[in-house]
Every structure is written in structure tokens, then in C-alpha cells.
Amino acid sequence: MAVGLGPMSTLHPVPGFELGIASAGIKRPGRKDIVVMRCAEGSTVAGVFTTNAFCAAPVILARKRFLGPVRYLLTNTGNANAGTGEPGLANATRTCAKLAELAGVPENAVLPYSTGVIGEPLPVEKIEAALPAALANLSVDNWADAAAGIMTTDTLPKGASRQFQHDGVTITVTGISKGAGMIKPNMATMLGYIATDAKVAQGVLQDLLRDASNKSFNRITIDGDTSTNDCCMLVATGQAALPEITAATGALFAALKQAVLDVSMELAQAIVRDGEGATKFVTVQVNGGATHQECLDVGYAVSHSPLIKTALFASDPNWGRILAAVGRAGVPDLDVSLIDVFLDDVAIASRGCRATSYTEDQGAKVMAQEEITIRIDLGRGTCSETIWTTDLSHEYVKINAEYRT
Amino acid sequence: MAVGLGPMSTLHPVPGFELGIASAGIKRPGRKDIVVMRCAEGSTVAGVFTTNAFCAAPVILARKRFLGPVRYLLTNTGNANAGTGEPGLANATRTCAKLAELAGVPENAVLPYSTGVIGEPLPVEKIEAALPAALANLSVDNWADAAAGIMTTDTLPKGASRQFQHDGVTITVTGISKGAGMIKPNMATMLGYIATDAKVAQGVLQDLLRDASNKSFNRITIDGDTSTNDCCMLVATGQAALPEITAATGALFAALKQAVLDVSMELAQAIVRDGEGATKFVTVQVNGGATHQECLDVGYAVSHSPLIKTALFASDPNWGRILAAVGRAGVPDLDVSLIDVFLDDVAIASRGCRATSYTEDQGAKVMAQEEITIRIDLGRGTCSETIWTTDLSHEYVKINAEYRT
């Protein structure tokens, strides 16, 4: 069902960052459900984590340890190790300790990540038993396999890669992500791993990741549910033969920043394209706001409205539902007589009412597309925000009603 | 599909309040889509209206006129006259003027109500042509027909009635409501009309209605979408042979207040029971909050979560999704280790983790019921709030994807 999401493009290896995949049989025998990532010594790591108060045990641990030094990232699917309290934290700690022991690194150098069903005990023995195979499989060429290995309800693996040159040296930024439901900013049931061979101090790396996340991963929503387990990590291995990149390194910094943003955006949009039951890829663009927050409030009211989402599924240009969602977004002193709404380039509402030029045919034509932009102009300022979302289909209900059965 | 919603009980006539039904052929020929209500001279009227900034033309007009004197309420279904701007307001005004002319009352004494598709021009001629038949049909015995006449996607008419005695005099409170989707507090695509033959000053009546609404209509949600057209009206005709009821009239005031609340609650819950595609009637009770607002925030996060709603549809006790929704509700400094969650009387989460006594069988048994209470104890205060909602089924998607076709 993924909308406009084809095979992954080439995922360039990142020197100093290896990936190993194995099968622990957590949910189904034979399924690849363990991914180990090894960072070269001296790597710096940035991370952004879920804002859900019920954050999972691995999130607690990863957040505590990521300032480093970090050598391994350990991911399992099939079990989120969330809502598991102290025993869950002990289990996460134990799997990391086992990997540390096998790899000969300090326990603190291993960060855990889990995704899957909430509230079930982590199958520690199964995971531990699969670690030697994952370590034996480590290779810089395994990005595509790792993208498949972190999938849950995803229908396709998600990866993105960019390269740029500086002083004859190639810098690579490559990443993978997973997530298809329980997707709402800050963050989603989303795991993202991005690596670069640039050399970047942790503080600078953290700024790069936060900025890129706020424009990409934190601007997507499928169902408004924020997961307990979201993490996005950015690793800089420093293996490229270039000096350290800082905000003062001008063009080089700008190029890296753009590459990280491009990879983040492609990964984030891929999550929406593969949204549970998605048949549409919808860009909700809110312009003319007095504040960024009110643009976001309007954007999310539209993106989360089940009535708009079902109309999108039905390719029905029921623009009244868009006006209704804008009107309930809680924008203070909203003057509805200033609001324009467009479907792609078709003006459907102008100054708060149906546009006089508008015909149902024009609306129906845009709504029939797989990719649609809903553009709302509030006419009260200069702020803009963009959010990406999906429709609400029978398939979404089916997937989520049957997830555990 | 309505959950536990049987035939309406007897709707006692309210002296001084007559209802007339007619067919204007707005959406389908022959369908009853016009309801006129006549209030005896001297009636007082209270009203609560949608908070949606894009409120419909009839809402603007009704809100302006309801302080009275009011003689007629004119309702049409099939067209919401919302998102229609100045021409919409002119159309609403025109239909009221026509009814006023036919009935021989001042134009300001007629209040309009509309529900249906947003953004289409109101078919004024059709409505005007049906008014004489509606007036000819006026009778105090027409509550049940009127309940059917205001339906849109409702599958069953909704009505409730209470009587009580005082000094040998019977006081009646009877009401009807409609609404099945786009339902979220303040208010929903909900129309409600309640009448009593008590004599009550407008200010007192308004307090009674506001209080009852905040415990009933403003605590229900189906899909989180707030309509442009919601109104709930409470009319006091003063025909009962009793002195005026004020807050100082003790037991009599308390009895009327309770009757208005009972009728409001039954009407509000009927809307949820008949929620679009509903297969479950779900009570979300949040206790132990530090503030009422945080109880509401948690209650709505749970009630609106598509993941919880689909799990309810599937009768799947996926309690992890409940924890996740509580965690993302935005409660400041939430200590998850204090939180208990129950499905009816079954403890599913205790102190933030799976309850040790809990078994899937226990949860599955409750989830298989048509009526389920999700009880959340935040363990941080003494405030409580209750919200009523439904599951999210295939039928909901079907109804809303096909509404206009």
C-alpha cells in the first residue's frame, strides 16, 4: 500500500559504521529481528527521544548513555519493552551487558532500542542467543539488510543516503528508519539511525540532529499517537580524512547540515508513505500564521481529523471538513473571513467560504491523486509550517484491530 | 449498530411546546427533514453553541436571538449552511423571516438550526415551501416524530423524558437530540432540544443548561471533530401551575436541575451509543488527578487514540496502548510509577506496569463486552472526570468515506 515508495536507492557505506543482522525468533521463527550496529572508536553520538512520559526501558537507558563513549547500538523488534517497569529496565541492561561482554567493551558503551508490542516481558534469552550471529555478520555493507531487520508493520524497508565532496574527500550520510503507525511528532513508533563519516563534536552533532528532526521526523503524523519507544540517533565516526566540522567551518558545515536534513526528510516521508493503510501521501501546509505554534495547531487539527482522513481515503473533496477542522484548532481570535484553502493549486475556499471559481470537478481531480497538498492560508501573519500525513482507510482499522492476533 | 440503544421511552408532552414535522426534499424526496418547534408566549430560552470559529450561519443567528422573546425554532437536516459566508447568513435570515411571516410573529422570534453537508448553499425555496405543512403539523405529541426528523447519519432517534411532582403539580422535562459523527465536546454535530413546562428566568435556565451540558454533551467524543453547527437549547414554557423556579426554591430547583441533567445525560449517551460505526460504548473515567483539566487531557488522549479505538473494536485488551496514551497526554511531571489502570474491575496495570494479578483472559473477557469502563487512576490528587466514547470500526470509515456519495 506504500504511496510512492519504491525500492530503496543505494545506501552508501559509512566508514567506521558496521551493521549486523540476526534472527532471535522473538515474534516468528526465522524473522530477522536483531540488528547490532558498531561505531568506530572515537565516534560521537547524538540522539532525540520520545516525549511520552511512559517511555520504554531501552529509551531510559539509551538516553542515559548516549553521550558516550558509545560503541554498539542493539535493536530488537517484536517487543517494545515498554510499560515493563523495573524488570524491563533490568532486562534492557542485561542484554546490553551480554553484548558488551561478547564484544569486549564497557557495558555503558552499548545502547538498547526496542520496538513492538507494549507491556510484554522482553525475551532476554532469545536475544542473548542471537547476539553472536549478529556480531559475526557485522559489515559496512549491511544497511539494506538492517533496514529490513528493524521493520515491524512496515511494508517496505526505508533508507536514504547522500554524499558530498570537500577538498577531494567524499563525505557520506546514510540512514535507515522504521515506523508505520503510532506516528506523531516527538517522536513516533519510530526508530531512526543515521551515520556519517564526518568528524563532529557531540554538541554540534546534537544541534544538527535536533534541527533536522524538527523539520522532518517531528512534522509527520499518521494517527496522532506518540510512541513510548521513539529514538533517532546520529553517529559521526570521524573516519573521513578531514578536520573536525564545526559551525565555523562554513560551506562544509552547511553541506553536512543539508545532507543530514535531506536524509532525515527522506526517511520521515518514507514513514508516512508507508503509513498503516495509507493510500494517500498528504502535505498539509499552513501559511500566514501569526505564530509557528498556531500553524502547527491548525496543521495537526487537519492532519488528525478522522473526517478529513476518511474523505481523503474516499477521494472526496469535502472541503467543509477542512474548514471545520481549522475552526476548531483553537487559534485565538481567528477571523475566518481571511482564510483561504487550496487543494494543490485549486482554490476551494476563499475568504472563509467556498471559492466562487471552484467546481467539484476541480476538487475531485486533485483528490483522486495519490499525492495531495492541502494549503491553508490564515491571513494573519508570516509564519508557516508543513506537516506530512496519510488518509484513514479500512486497511488502517484492519491492521490495528488485528495487530496482536 | 447502536450499542444498547433500544426504542425510545415515552416522551411526555410539555405543555406550551409544540412540534411540527415536514418534508422539504433537501437530500432525498420524502424524507422528513424540517422540524418546527413553537414555544408558548412568555417562554424563556437557554442555549449553548459550538466553539468552532467556523460556526455556521444558523448558529450566528440563533446565538444572537435566543435571549428572546423566542417563539419558533426552525431546524433543517441535509444541509449545514456552514462555510457559506454572507450569502449563508442571508439564507438563514430569509427562512426565519418566511416562518415569522407565516406564523405572524416578529422575525427575531425565529431561531434557525441546520445540520448536514458543510459548504453547500442552503436550498431556501425547498425549505420555505415546506413550512406551511410543518406549521399545520404542530402538536405537543410530536416529540418522537421530531426526534426522527432531525436525524442525519443517526441510525435511531434519540429522546428522553422525566417527570416529577411538586405540590400536586407534575413538571415535565423532555428532550431530543441528534448526532453520530463529528462529535467532540463544545459541542458536536449535535443538535439538542429540551423543553420543560416549569417557569424559569433566562439566567437561571442558562445556568441549568450550562451545568448539565458540561456533565453530558461536553463529555462525549466520537472522533474528536467539533462541528460548526452544534447547538443545545433548553426552553421553559412556564405553563405549569407553579411559581417561578429560582436557585432559592430549594427542593424544587434541585429536582428540576436533576431532571435536566438526567435528560441531558441520556441524550448525550444515546449519541455515543449510536456513534458512527460504534460497536462498543466506552466510559473513560480518570481519577486521582491534581486538576480537572489534566483528567480531561488524559481522558481525551485515551478517547481519541485510534490505536485504542481499533483495539476496542477488535476486543483486544492491548493495555499498553492505554499506557502510551496516558503518557503522551501532556500532564506535567507525570510520575508513571503511580498509575493504575482498570478494565471494569480488572486491574490491568498497577504502579505503571502490568499488574501481577492480570491475565490476558481477564482482559479479553471485559473487552468482549459491548459496554466497557476504562478507569485510570493518576495517583496525584482528588479530581475526577468521565468521558464517554466509542470504538473505531470499519463501519466508521465506510460511513465517512461515503457520506456525500
Automatic annotation (TrEMBL), chains A, B:
<dbReference type="GO" id="GO:0006526">
    <property type="term" value="P:L-arginine biosynthetic process"/>
</dbReference>
<feature type="site" description="Cleavage; by autolysis">
    <location>
        <begin position="188"/>
        <end position="189"/>
    </location>
</feature>
<comment type="function">
    <text>Catalyzes two activities which are involved in the cyclic version of arginine biosynthesis: the synthesis of N-acetylglutamate from glutamate and acetyl-CoA as the acetyl donor, and of ornithine by transacetylation between N(2)-acetylornithine and glutamate.</text>
</comment>
<dbReference type="InterPro" id="IPR002813">
    <property type="entry name" value="Arg_biosynth_ArgJ"/>
</dbReference>
<dbReference type="GO" id="GO:0006592">
    <property type="term" value="P:ornithine biosynthetic process"/>
</dbReference>
<feature type="binding site">
    <location>
        <position position="152"/>
    </location>
    <ligand>
        <name>substrate</name>
    </ligand>
</feature>
<feature type="binding site">
    <location>
        <position position="400"/>
    </location>
    <ligand>
        <name>substrate</name>
    </ligand>
</feature>
<keyword id="KW-0963">Cytoplasm</keyword>
<dbReference type="GO" id="GO:0004042">
    <property type="term" value="F:L-glutamate N-acetyltransferase activity"/>
</dbReference>
<dbReference type="GO" id="GO:0005737">
    <property type="term" value="C:cytoplasm"/>
</dbReference>
<comment type="pathway">
    <text>Amino-acid biosynthesis; L-arginine biosynthesis; L-ornithine and N-acetyl-L-glutamate from L-glutamate and N(2)-acetyl-L-ornithine (cyclic): step 1/1.</text>
</comment>
<comment type="pathway">
    <text>Amino-acid biosynthesis; L-arginine biosynthesis; N(2)-acetyl-L-ornithine from L-glutamate: step 1/4.</text>
</comment>
<keyword id="KW-0055">Arginine biosynthesis</keyword>
<keyword id="KW-0808">Transferase</keyword>
<feature type="binding site">
    <location>
        <position position="405"/>
    </location>
    <ligand>
        <name>substrate</name>
    </ligand>
</feature>
<feature type="site" description="Involved in the stabilization of negative charge on the oxyanion by the formation of the oxyanion hole">
    <location>
        <position position="116"/>
    </location>
</feature>
<feature type="binding site">
    <location>
        <position position="189"/>
    </location>
    <ligand>
        <name>substrate</name>
    </ligand>
</feature>
<feature type="site" description="Involved in the stabilization of negative charge on the oxyanion by the formation of the oxyanion hole">
    <location>
        <position position="115"/>
    </location>
</feature>
<keyword id="KW-0028">Amino-acid biosynthesis</keyword>
<keyword id="KW-0511">Multifunctional enzyme</keyword>
<keyword id="KW-0068">Autocatalytic cleavage</keyword>
<dbReference type="Pfam" id="PF01960">
    <property type="entry name" value="ArgJ"/>
</dbReference>
<protein>
    <recommendedName>
        <fullName>Arginine biosynthesis bifunctional protein ArgJ</fullName>
        <ecNumber>2.3.1.35</ecNumber>
        <ecNumber>2.3.1.1</ecNumber>
    </recommendedName>
</protein>
<comment type="similarity">
    <text>Belongs to the ArgJ family.</text>
</comment>
<feature type="binding site">
    <location>
        <position position="276"/>
    </location>
    <ligand>
        <name>substrate</name>
    </ligand>
</feature>
<dbReference type="InterPro" id="IPR016117">
    <property type="entry name" value="ArgJ-like_dom_sf"/>
</dbReference>
<comment type="subunit">
    <text>Heterotetramer of two alpha and two beta chains.</text>
</comment>
<feature type="binding site">
    <location>
        <position position="178"/>
    </location>
    <ligand>
        <name>substrate</name>
    </ligand>
</feature>
<feature type="active site" description="Nucleophile">
    <location>
        <position position="189"/>
    </location>
</feature>
<dbReference type="InterPro" id="IPR042195">
    <property type="entry name" value="ArgJ_beta_C"/>
</dbReference>
<keyword id="KW-0012">Acyltransferase</keyword>
<dbReference type="GO" id="GO:0004358">
    <property type="term" value="F:L-glutamate N-acetyltransferase activity, acting on acetyl-L-ornithine as donor"/>
</dbReference>
